[in-house]
Write a structure and sequence with these properties.
single chain; 580 residues; mainly beta; Immunoglobulin-like; 6-stranded mixed β-sheet; 39 strands; 12% helix
């Protein structure tokens, strides 16, 4: 019996992921794609796609290798080069690759995406789905986990008898490493579902929210399996569908590139977590498209994703259309028109005549639509909208349709989401974020004050006002470092600080409005920084803490005698205090 290329969901469905940033970002725990060794022999060679031989452009994929010998590394890098050649040039992501013995000798390789982003957080086509790390970074143009951190992790089993050549002439006794690595790389791009069977019922999603792949999974009557009006999540009815051998991947991109039909998925009567739904059907998929079917056999060398896999990747977001737009800010100017401008960037053909803006004035204004005009600069559009009144809000959003009929929006959070500005007299005070220092030593040559200051109109001035104990108050301007970060470096050498002194200060920000709105922190009084003395160094020191309060400068510690203790000791502050 052949063993499939599985995505093993190792946790119970209630404990898949660690949530972060209000569920916008999900950090993966134990979701892995695992490719098992098929038991059969299938001598076939599908060469790389045409783009690979042209060697033009493509994605930037950086791989960090651990444990690979030169031959294995060469095969892995060859697969990466194939993948890179078919991806958009604006894509860039990192892979962590490890060549090591895996616990199951039948596992050829395993892979995972390191995190997922909610579509609404990256202005993706579908705001209500999660996108894998490489795809999220491609769509948003933002690195969400650190510039050198991996987005996909792949382990290749060093115990397998590998063919590491790139000719495609794979012996019938070996497994083709290029094929297996390419298969797992494509899974890492988001080619996987979240359906599963738990306690005889079908379910899906990360805390109820599907991955983007799930949004296109339908039955043979084109009913979406995530339609909760038809299939409750979880339910036995859903389990019947995903094990009924009549499941398809259906969407406008796939249909356009597959003669108007969807792609049949592997939906075996015996549910197999990760293998079911996550692959093309083994028996109906043509050999040239078979890279993403469930089984990899000996001698099988498929060095091209095929048009079906590429269409699926395009459907989930690798063929994307987006906007580059500098959001408008609130203004006190008496405007006759609001001037809007945006650039449209696309991996395919978009319909320029469909580019437009939805807008309205006020809180309950009537929504209106106006189409954008080309400016003469490539892919750049603009429009001027007459302003109907002063002292009112203005809300707007962009939209455009691509050649597959998909409508992309900015912002994409919902169909009615908008950017919002205020046109009129500004009464909004600046916002200041600041963390006061705990203390300062009497010998310190300077003190640095830092603050974050922001405002809807913009910041004009930030300054710090300080004094030593009850001395003369002095003001010093805080210099803008970047964006909204400000800093003041105050020289203390001439002030003659002594132990017991106190530096009192407050920070003030003034905005750019005509009314010069002012914000000061703290709102009343001053922050106070105690001045401490640096004691003479000692070769040794012993204390029972009974008289040590004046000696230690405590940060995160305190000298106390808690209940049950015979005397004072140095204790950390408890991170989870009892409510009692």
């Amino acid at each position: 019996m052949k063993k499939g290329c599985l995505i093993i969901l190792l946790c119970l469905f209630e404990a898949f992921f660690t949530l972060a940033a209000g569920q916008d970002k999900i950090i993966k725990t134990d979701l892995k794609t695992v490719c098992y060794a098929g038991s059969g022999v299938k001598r076939i060679y599908i060469p790389p796609p045409e783009e690979f031989y042209r060697k033009e452009g493509g994605a930037k994929i950086t791989v960090s290798y651990t444990g690979f010998n030169s031959l294995a590394k060469g095969a892995f890098q060859y697969a990466v080069s194939i993948l890179s050649s078919i991806l958009p040039a604006n894509a860039s992501f990192n892979i962590k690759a490890v060549y090591e013995p895996l616990s199951d000798p039948n596992i050829l390789a395993q892979a995972s995406a390191t995190y997922f982003m909610r579509g609404s957080a990256i202005n993706a086509f579908d705001p209500g789905a999660y996108y894998s790390a490489p795809l999220a970074e491609k769509i948003s143009g933002v690195n969400h986990n650190g510039i050198s951190e991996p987005d996909v992790e792949i382990s290749v089993n060093s115990l397998v008898t590998w063919y590491t050549g790139t000719s495609g002439n794979t012996p019938s006794t070996m497994y083709d490493m290029v094929t297996v690595v390419l298969h797992e790389l494509i899974h890492g791009l988001g080619f996987f579902d979240s359906f599963r069977v738990v306690d005889s019922v079908g379910t899906y999603g990360f805390y109820g929210t599907p991955v983007i792949y799930d949004k296109f999974v339908v039955n043979n009557n084109y009913k979406k399996l995530i339609d909760t009006l038809i299939y409750r999540n979880p339910s036995g009815k859903l389990k019947t569908e995903i094990t009924g051998n009549k499941v398809y991947f259906h969407g406008p991109v796939v249909n356009a590139l597959n003669n108007g039909t969807g792609i049949k998925l592997f939906a075996h009567s015996v549910w197999d977590n990760g293998s079911s739904i996550a692959h093309f059907d083994e028996f109906s998929t043509p050999p040239a498209e078979a890279l993403m079917t469930p089984y990899i056999d000996r001698g099988e060398a498929i060095h091209a994703p095929g048009k079906l896999a590429r269409a699926l990747l395009g459907e989930i977001g690798w063929i994307n259309t987006g906007f580059i737009h500098k959001r408008l800010s609130d203004t006190e100017d008496t405007l006759e028109y609001v001037d809007l401008k945006t650039q449209i960037v696309s991996d395919t053909v978009y319909i320029s005549d469909s580019a437009g803006v939805c807008f309205y004035f006020g809180d309950k204004g009537i929504r209106d639509t106006i189409y954008l005009s080309l400016t003469g600069v490539e892919d750049t559009f603009a429009v001027s909208i007459p302003v109907t009144e002063y002292n009112t809000s203005f809300s707007y959003s962009f939209f455009v349709k691509d050649c597959f009929g998909r409508i992309f929006r900015l912002p994409s959070a919902t169909d009615s989401a908008s950017y919002r500005i205020y046109i009129g007299t500004d009464t909004v005070k600046p916002v200041i974020k600041h963390t006061p220092p705990d203390m300062i030593f009497s010998i310190s040559p300077s003190i640095i004050f830092t603050a974050y200051a922001d405002d809807n109109i913009g910041i004009d001035t930030v300054y710090v006002e300080y004094e030593i104990t009850d001395g003369i108050s002095v003001s010093a301007g805080m210099q803008r470092q970047k964006e909204n970060d400000f800093k003041a470096d105050i020289n203390l050498t001439s002030l003659g600080l002594h132990e017991g002194d106190t530096i009192k200060y407050r920070i003030t920000a003034i905005d750019n409005s005509r009314g010069r709105n002012i914000k000061t922190v703290p709102e009343s009084g001053f922050y106070k920084i105690p001045v401490e003395q640096v004691l003479t160094p000692s070769a040794s020191y012993i204390t029972d803490f009974s008289d040590a309060n004046g000696i230690f400068i405590n940060r995160g510690f305190e000298i106390t005698t808690p209940p049950g203790f015979a005397g004072p000791a140095l204790h950390t502050l408890h991170p989870h205090e009892s409510p009692e």
